[in-house]
Amino acid sequence: MHVIPIYTLFKHHALNGLVAKSPWPGEQAERSQADLQREARAHRQIQEGLTENDYTRRFIRLISCDPSDSTLTMEYAKMGTLRNYLQAHAEQIDQSRRYSWILAMAEGLAMLHAQSIIHCDFTPNNMLLDDRLELKITDFGCCSIDGSRPTGAASIRFDPCNGDWRTLATQVEDLFALGSSIFEVLTGKRPLEDIPSESQIRFRRSHWTRDGAFSSGGLPTDSYGGVTLPEWKNA
Protein backbone atom coordinates (compact mmCIF):
# COMPACT_ATOMS: atom_id res chain seq x y z
CA MET A 1 0.00 0.00 0.00
CA HIS A 2 1.26 3.49 -0.81
CA VAL A 3 -0.03 7.03 -0.60
CA ILE A 4 -0.94 8.69 -3.89
CA PRO A 5 -0.01 12.40 -3.78
CA ILE A 6 -3.12 14.37 -4.75
CA TYR A 7 -3.92 17.91 -3.63
CA THR A 8 -7.23 17.47 -1.82
CA LEU A 9 -8.58 17.30 1.69
CA PHE A 10 -8.35 13.52 1.52
CA LYS A 11 -5.77 10.79 1.87
CA HIS A 12 -5.49 8.25 -0.95
CA HIS A 13 -4.11 4.73 -0.61
CA ALA A 14 -3.84 2.22 -3.47
CA LEU A 15 -4.11 -1.53 -2.95
CA ASN A 16 -5.13 -4.40 -5.23
CA GLY A 17 -6.50 -2.22 -7.99
CA LEU A 18 -8.63 -0.11 -5.66
CA VAL A 19 -8.18 3.26 -3.97
CA ALA A 20 -9.25 4.15 -0.44
CA LYS A 21 -10.15 7.83 -0.21
CA SER A 22 -10.30 8.75 3.46
CA PRO A 23 -10.72 12.02 5.38
CA TRP A 24 -7.85 13.81 7.04
CA PRO A 25 -7.90 13.81 10.86
CA GLY A 26 -7.98 16.92 12.99
CA GLU A 27 -9.37 20.28 11.95
CA GLN A 28 -10.16 19.20 8.39
CA ALA A 29 -11.96 16.00 9.35
CA GLU A 30 -15.51 17.36 9.52
CA ARG A 31 -15.31 19.17 6.19
CA SER A 32 -13.58 16.33 4.36
CA GLN A 33 -16.10 13.79 5.68
CA ALA A 34 -18.96 15.98 4.48
CA ASP A 35 -17.38 16.24 1.03
CA LEU A 36 -16.86 12.48 0.89
CA GLN A 37 -20.52 11.96 1.78
CA ARG A 38 -21.49 14.39 -0.97
CA GLU A 39 -19.31 12.49 -3.41
CA ALA A 40 -20.91 9.17 -2.45
CA ARG A 41 -24.38 10.66 -2.91
CA ALA A 42 -23.43 11.93 -6.36
CA HIS A 43 -22.17 8.50 -7.37
CA ARG A 44 -25.37 6.83 -6.18
CA GLN A 45 -27.46 9.30 -8.17
CA ILE A 46 -25.35 8.71 -11.28
CA GLN A 47 -25.57 4.94 -10.85
CA GLU A 48 -29.35 5.07 -10.51
CA GLY A 49 -29.78 7.21 -13.63
CA LEU A 50 -27.34 5.50 -16.00
CA THR A 51 -26.81 2.01 -17.31
CA GLU A 52 -23.97 0.14 -15.65
CA ASN A 53 -22.00 0.29 -18.88
CA ASP A 54 -22.30 4.08 -19.18
CA TYR A 55 -21.39 4.58 -15.52
CA THR A 56 -18.29 2.39 -15.61
CA ARG A 57 -17.23 3.74 -19.00
CA ARG A 58 -17.21 7.43 -18.09
CA PHE A 59 -16.77 7.60 -14.32
CA ILE A 60 -14.38 6.21 -11.73
CA ARG A 61 -16.49 3.57 -9.99
CA LEU A 62 -17.48 3.91 -6.35
CA ILE A 63 -17.20 0.46 -4.77
CA SER A 64 -18.28 1.25 -1.22
CA CYS A 65 -18.62 3.96 1.43
CA ASP A 66 -17.70 3.22 5.04
CA PRO A 67 -20.45 4.70 7.26
CA SER A 68 -18.09 5.03 10.23
CA ASP A 69 -15.80 7.68 8.70
CA SER A 70 -17.08 8.14 5.11
CA THR A 71 -14.01 6.49 3.56
CA LEU A 72 -14.68 5.71 -0.10
CA THR A 73 -13.31 2.63 -1.84
CA MET A 74 -12.99 3.36 -5.54
CA GLU A 75 -11.61 2.06 -8.80
CA TYR A 76 -7.90 2.74 -9.27
CA ALA A 77 -6.90 4.49 -12.52
CA LYS A 78 -3.43 3.22 -13.31
CA MET A 79 -2.30 6.02 -15.63
CA GLY A 80 -3.16 8.89 -13.27
CA THR A 81 -4.65 12.27 -14.06
CA LEU A 82 -5.16 13.51 -17.58
CA ARG A 83 -3.17 16.66 -16.75
CA ASN A 84 -0.12 14.72 -15.59
CA TYR A 85 -0.29 12.44 -18.60
CA LEU A 86 -0.51 15.39 -21.00
CA GLN A 87 2.57 16.93 -19.43
CA ALA A 88 4.60 13.71 -19.29
CA HIS A 89 3.80 12.44 -22.79
CA ALA A 90 3.19 15.61 -24.79
CA GLU A 91 5.21 14.51 -27.82
CA GLN A 92 3.78 10.99 -27.96
CA ILE A 93 0.04 11.79 -27.91
CA ASP A 94 -1.50 11.80 -31.39
CA GLN A 95 -4.46 13.91 -32.41
CA SER A 96 -6.92 11.02 -32.56
CA ARG A 97 -6.21 10.27 -28.90
CA ARG A 98 -6.72 13.91 -27.95
CA TYR A 99 -10.02 14.02 -29.84
CA SER A 100 -11.19 10.84 -28.12
CA TRP A 101 -10.55 12.43 -24.71
CA ILE A 102 -12.49 15.55 -25.72
CA LEU A 103 -15.46 13.44 -26.79
CA ALA A 104 -15.25 11.44 -23.55
CA MET A 105 -15.22 14.49 -21.29
CA ALA A 106 -18.11 16.09 -23.20
CA GLU A 107 -20.12 12.88 -23.04
CA GLY A 108 -19.44 12.44 -19.34
CA LEU A 109 -20.40 16.02 -18.55
CA ALA A 110 -23.67 15.62 -20.47
CA MET A 111 -24.41 12.50 -18.42
CA LEU A 112 -23.79 14.42 -15.19
CA HIS A 113 -26.06 17.27 -16.17
CA ALA A 114 -28.80 14.84 -17.19
CA GLN A 115 -28.71 13.56 -13.59
CA SER A 116 -28.98 17.11 -12.15
CA ILE A 117 -25.36 17.15 -11.03
CA ILE A 118 -23.01 20.07 -11.67
CA HIS A 119 -19.40 19.06 -11.14
CA CYS A 120 -18.07 22.53 -10.11
CA ASP A 121 -14.40 21.49 -10.46
CA PHE A 122 -14.29 20.07 -13.98
CA THR A 123 -10.61 20.11 -14.94
CA PRO A 124 -8.07 17.64 -16.39
CA ASN A 125 -6.83 17.16 -12.83
CA ASN A 126 -10.17 15.50 -12.02
CA MET A 127 -10.15 13.25 -15.07
CA LEU A 128 -8.28 9.97 -14.76
CA LEU A 129 -6.94 7.49 -17.32
CA ASP A 130 -7.18 3.73 -16.96
CA ASP A 131 -4.67 1.23 -18.34
CA ARG A 132 -6.24 1.56 -21.81
CA LEU A 133 -6.00 5.38 -21.62
CA GLU A 134 -9.79 5.66 -21.42
CA LEU A 135 -10.86 8.89 -19.72
CA LYS A 136 -13.04 8.72 -16.62
CA ILE A 137 -14.38 11.61 -14.56
CA THR A 138 -13.90 11.71 -10.80
CA ASP A 139 -13.99 13.89 -7.66
CA PHE A 140 -17.52 15.09 -6.89
CA GLY A 141 -16.65 16.35 -3.41
CA CYS A 142 -17.73 19.95 -4.05
CA CYS A 143 -20.46 19.32 -6.64
CA SER A 144 -24.01 20.67 -6.76
CA ILE A 145 -26.71 17.98 -6.58
CA ASP A 146 -30.31 18.82 -7.49
CA GLY A 147 -29.60 22.53 -7.13
CA SER A 148 -27.74 22.36 -3.81
CA ARG A 149 -25.07 24.93 -3.07
CA PRO A 150 -21.55 23.71 -3.98
CA THR A 151 -18.75 23.64 -1.43
CA GLY A 152 -15.95 24.59 -3.80
CA ALA A 153 -15.06 25.69 -7.31
CA ALA A 154 -12.40 25.29 -9.96
CA SER A 155 -9.51 27.71 -10.32
CA ILE A 156 -10.05 30.94 -12.23
CA ARG A 157 -8.83 29.42 -15.51
CA PHE A 158 -11.71 26.95 -15.37
CA ASP A 159 -14.40 29.00 -13.65
CA PRO A 160 -16.17 32.07 -15.12
CA CYS A 161 -17.17 33.13 -11.59
CA ASN A 162 -13.48 33.55 -10.71
CA GLY A 163 -13.48 30.79 -8.11
CA ASP A 164 -16.46 32.14 -6.13
CA TRP A 165 -18.48 29.11 -5.00
CA ARG A 166 -20.77 30.98 -2.60
CA THR A 167 -23.50 31.36 -5.22
CA LEU A 168 -25.68 28.65 -6.73
CA ALA A 169 -23.95 26.74 -9.50
CA THR A 170 -25.29 26.44 -13.03
CA GLN A 171 -24.35 24.27 -15.98
CA VAL A 172 -22.69 27.33 -17.53
CA GLU A 173 -19.75 27.00 -15.12
CA ASP A 174 -19.18 23.39 -16.16
CA LEU A 175 -19.44 24.28 -19.86
CA PHE A 176 -16.85 27.02 -19.37
CA ALA A 177 -14.61 24.47 -17.66
CA LEU A 178 -15.17 22.08 -20.55
CA GLY A 179 -13.91 24.73 -22.96
CA SER A 180 -10.83 25.31 -20.80
CA SER A 181 -10.24 21.56 -20.57
CA ILE A 182 -10.48 21.20 -24.36
CA PHE A 183 -7.88 23.96 -24.64
CA GLU A 184 -5.55 22.07 -22.31
CA VAL A 185 -6.00 18.77 -24.14
CA LEU A 186 -5.22 20.34 -27.51
CA THR A 187 -2.34 22.57 -26.44
CA GLY A 188 -0.93 20.88 -23.33
CA LYS A 189 -1.30 24.15 -21.41
CA ARG A 190 -3.96 25.67 -19.21
CA PRO A 191 -5.55 28.87 -20.56
CA LEU A 192 -3.36 31.89 -19.78
CA GLU A 193 -0.80 29.63 -18.13
CA ASP A 194 1.90 32.26 -18.59
CA ILE A 195 0.02 34.73 -16.36
CA PRO A 196 0.46 33.87 -12.65
CA SER A 197 -1.72 36.64 -11.20
CA GLU A 198 -5.46 36.00 -10.93
CA SER A 199 -6.18 39.74 -11.06
CA GLN A 200 -4.30 39.99 -14.35
CA ILE A 201 -6.29 37.08 -15.74
CA ARG A 202 -9.56 38.79 -14.78
CA PHE A 203 -8.41 41.99 -16.49
CA ARG A 204 -7.27 40.15 -19.61
CA ARG A 205 -10.54 38.22 -19.90
CA SER A 206 -12.70 41.31 -19.41
CA HIS A 207 -10.97 43.10 -22.31
CA TRP A 208 -11.01 40.33 -24.86
CA THR A 209 -12.77 40.80 -28.17
CA ARG A 210 -13.47 38.13 -30.74
CA ASP A 211 -10.60 39.32 -32.95
CA GLY A 212 -8.23 40.28 -30.17
CA ALA A 213 -8.47 37.10 -28.09
CA PHE A 214 -6.14 35.18 -30.35
CA SER A 215 -3.49 37.89 -30.75
CA SER A 216 -3.47 38.52 -26.99
CA GLY A 217 -1.88 35.12 -26.42
CA GLY A 218 -4.70 33.70 -24.31
CA LEU A 219 -6.12 31.42 -26.97
CA PRO A 220 -4.33 29.34 -29.58
CA THR A 221 -3.75 30.95 -32.96
CA ASP A 222 -4.26 27.74 -34.94
CA SER A 223 -7.46 25.98 -35.98
CA TYR A 224 -8.20 24.88 -32.40
CA GLY A 225 -9.02 28.39 -31.24
CA GLY A 226 -12.67 28.42 -32.20
CA VAL A 227 -13.33 25.47 -29.91
CA THR A 228 -12.80 27.43 -26.71
CA LEU A 229 -13.37 31.06 -27.64
CA PRO A 230 -17.17 31.18 -27.08
CA GLU A 231 -16.89 30.03 -23.46
CA TRP A 232 -14.11 32.51 -22.63
CA LYS A 233 -15.61 35.39 -24.60
CA ASN A 234 -18.86 35.24 -22.61
CA ALA A 235 -17.25 34.91 -19.18
CATH topology category name: Transferase(Phosphotransferase), domain 1
CATH superfamily: Transferase(Phosphotransferase) domain 1
Q: How many helical elements?
A: 8
Low-confidence stretches: 1-9, 209-218, 228-235
List the domain count as a whole number.
Answer: 1
What is the count of β-strands? 9
Shape by Cα distribution: globular
- What's the CATH class label? Mainly Alpha
Portion in helices:
40-55%
Q: How does CATH name the architecture?
A: Orthogonal Bundle
What quaternary form is this? single chain
Q: Helices and strands, in N-to-C order?
A: EEEHHEEHHEEEEHHHH
What is the gyration radius calculated from CA atoms?
A: 18 Å
Class computed from helices, strands and strand pairing? alpha+beta
Spatial gap, N to C terminus: 43 Å
Major β-sheet, in short? Answer: 5 strands, antiparallel
List keywords for this structure.
transferase, globular, ATP binding, Ser/Thr_Kinases-Pseudokinases, five-stranded antiparallel sheet, disordered N terminus, alpha+beta, Transferase(Phosphotransferase), domain 1
Give a description of the structure.
- The protein has eight helices and nine strands.
- Helix 5 packs antiparallel against helix 8.
- A hairpin with a 6-residue loop joins strand 1 and strand 2.
- With 235 residues, it is of the alpha+beta class.
- The protein has a single domain, classed as Transferase(Phosphotransferase) domain 1 (Transferase(Phosphotransferase), domain 1, Orthogonal Bundle).
- Helix content is 40%, strand content 14%.
- The protein is globular.
- The chain has a five-stranded antiparallel beta sheet, with helices on one face.
- The chain starts with a strand and ends with a helix.
- The N terminus and C terminus are likely disordered.
- The longest helix has 21 residues.
- It is an enzyme of class 2 (transferase).
- InterPro entries: Kinase-like_dom_sf (IPR011009), Prot_kinase_dom (IPR000719), Ser/Thr_Kinases-Pseudokinases (IPR051681), Tyr_kinase_AS (IPR008266).
- This is EKC/KEOPS complex subunit BUD32.
- It catalyses: L-threonyl-[protein] + ATP = O-phospho-L-threonyl-[protein] + ADP + H(+); L-seryl-[protein] + ATP = O-phospho-L-seryl-[protein] + ADP + H(+).
- Its EC number is 2.7.11.1.
